[in-house]
């Protein structure tokens, strides 16, 4: 096969891990999936599976210009002597009851938020690491912590480091251009036991890469938090561009044009984050989006998703199987319907409507805090790309020019593109491909916009 100029992207996701080869010879970079696998909880197995796909990519395409790594946030591994994992991957989406109590009962949560931009929650790295260090024998053997993307960087290159977008989700670093983990002492740790923010890429001798046949000096980059990397990939390089990223969870992000009211952001359970491009942004998330669609599909494997949204469904759904995070936090919120039926036994239409209304509610919140309203919206994620009708509903509720990213794996491809730009192998203004989304017909769009307030009243009532 012909050797093309390309980069590799790795997306260590909550559900699955993907490795993609991104061509750098086209005006609109195109990606080819090398392979994927269910993300394991065993750190060594995670490394072996990624190494297998990287070896396959090398055999097919030859050495890449660069490798970018994106990952789910918050999650990571405690390491012991010789950087051996001491436990399974501590994950953001598997919070125990004790961790929930400790995270939510701290009296200084607001003060902590004002410094870090992230709320102390059961899923926050601060809480995960606190929980891990309480396990028998872990603290005595603990040498340092890595996020999941940092773990892969360490195995590939021997470099201990992370990215600002991932550091900003931990609750351990202040929200600053060059943060250091000043809150390590709260857990009885030294700052050098948490990874330094090192922008990279790292064109060093890479022992892990060389062991699977790669030449020396391939630049490797921790691209960052999966949602942030996808947003950068579709062109979020300045404020005014709202990105709705739909994965296992959903994140709605808008760059801020001025100082964000941190007190209000804390009250509304949104986060103040640093974007890949470096400016501050407001992020509002929902822990169950693609996860809910997948749960519905498991129960109805032979039923198609709606091909059109002509008018609102009679029933309303509150889409909260894990509580509501934002913009009106309620840990006790549940997955329920107005009729009392199990929402997963209903047709898909009311569930998809609820997720679209929830995303619109998040967008309204970040817009109020970011300063200026967005000029356009981009939808990112395989679930929304695969369902044009759902994309049209989201575009109608946004009532703004809306695009959808057409990249098959936008996070992995965004990571590859970012690594290429940072390594000087791609132009700085390169973006992933998108296409315009046509909204619903006027009558249907107006009916759904009127339904928005009814949705909010129902879920908060």
Write up what this structure looks like:
The protein has 461 residues and is of the alpha/beta class. Helix content is 35%, strand content 18%. It is built from 16 helices and 16 strands. Strands 10-11-9-8-14-15-16 form a 7-stranded mixed sheet, with helices on both faces. The protein has a 5-stranded mixed sheet with strand order 3-2-1-4-7, sandwiched between helices. It has a two-stranded antiparallel sheet with strand order 5-6. A hairpin with a 3-residue loop joins strand 8 and strand 9. It is globular.
Give me the secondary-structure topology:
Elements: E1 6-12, E2 16-23, E3 31-38, H1 43-61, E4 67-71, E5 76-79, H2 97-104, H3 109-116, H4 125-133, H5 138-141, E6 144-147, H6 148-157, H7 164-167, H8 207-211, E7 220-225, H9 226-233, E8 241-246, E9 250-255, H10 262-267, E10 271-274, E11 280-286, H11 290-299, E12 317-318, E13 336-337, H12 348-370, E14 376-380, H13 382-385, H14 388-398, E15 402-405, H15 410-422, E16 434-436, H16 442-460
Parallel strand pairs: 1-4, 4-7, 8-14, 14-15
Antiparallel strand pairs: 1-2, 2-3, 5-6, 8-9, 9-11, 10-11, 12-13, 15-16
Helix pairs in contact: 2-4, 9-15, 12-14, 12-16
